[in-house]
Amino acid sequence: MRLTFLGHAVLLISDIEGKYNVIIDPFITGNPAYPKDFQLPKIDYIMVTHGHGDHLGDTVELCKKYNSTVISNFEICNYLQLKGCKIHPMHVGGVYYFEFGKVKLTPAIHGSGIHEGDKVLYGGNPCGFLIKVEGKNIYHAGDTGLTKEFELLKDIDVAFLPIGGNFVMDVEDALVALEMIKPKIVVPIHYNTWDIIKADEQKFKEGAEKLGIKCVILKPGESLEI
Ligand code: NI
Ligand code: MN
User: Fold this and answer.
1) Residue 152 has pLDDT above 90, yes or no
2) Ligand 2 centroid – CA 9 distance (Å)
3) How far is the CA of 126 from the centre of ligand 1 (A)?
């Protein structure tokens, strides 16, 4: 499969033969890190980790364009259903087998309010996604602080971890997380989109390599094939 990083926390998971395309946290409009010339394929599933605008992003627009199904927590799914999206609600700890693979929602230490006009709507619990596709375990942590929950993750092939600090783990905490998760490959996300989440990805890479973990830094638009 091909894992394409599209800036901030946006991840596109595609089967190389074009059988499926799954996007996580599709923040496209207003995302300064989104690769402008990227040609997004037809999206089958949209996975949303939490209700913040930089993750919910263009979910409604993509659903309408591609008739995609949204996988998220129950509250976000109910909100999106009212906007006309096709939904598959789940919750933290729950597992479901989709046509593209197995999905489990993992805990994240964060918020999930949905900002709409002058209101903040309740967005349930934030989550990460543990996805088993083509026999490989992919972990997208979502927005989260450091937590011992990471110790429960096993046999991760590729982990996408936030390193930008302020709202999520910084480099130092992400390295502690990495020691717990011990993935084969780690890819840093959720940094340098704005100055408030500035981080030194090279420092993270050096730290990861000291732990014997391969770190791949993907620029927005770049992919990893596994
Ligand atoms: Ni957030
Ligand atoms: Mn965020």
Assistant:
1) yes
2) 7
3) 8
Mind listing the pLDDT tens digit for each residue in 109-143? 999 999 999 999 999 999 999 999 999 999 999 99
**pLDDT band (50, 70, 90) for residue 176:** very high
Residue 13 has, within 13 A of its CA and on its CB side, a CA count of: 26
**C-alpha 50 chain-centroid distance:** 10
CA of residue 190 to ligand 2 center, whole Å: 7
> Which of 25, 21, 22 shows the shortest CA–CA distance to 9?
25
Angle between helices 171-181 and 201-210 (to 10 degrees): 30
CA angle 39, 44, 50 (to 5 degrees): 95
Q: How many residues does the chain have?
A: 226
Q: Are 160 and 141 in contact (CB under 8 A)?
A: yes
Span from the CA of 19 to the centroid of ligand 1 (angstroms):
30
Cα distances (angstroms) measured from residue 191 to each of 66, 68, 168, 194: 29, 28, 9, 8
pTM value > 0.90: yes
How many angstroms separate the alpha carbon of residue 174 from the centre of ligand 2?
15
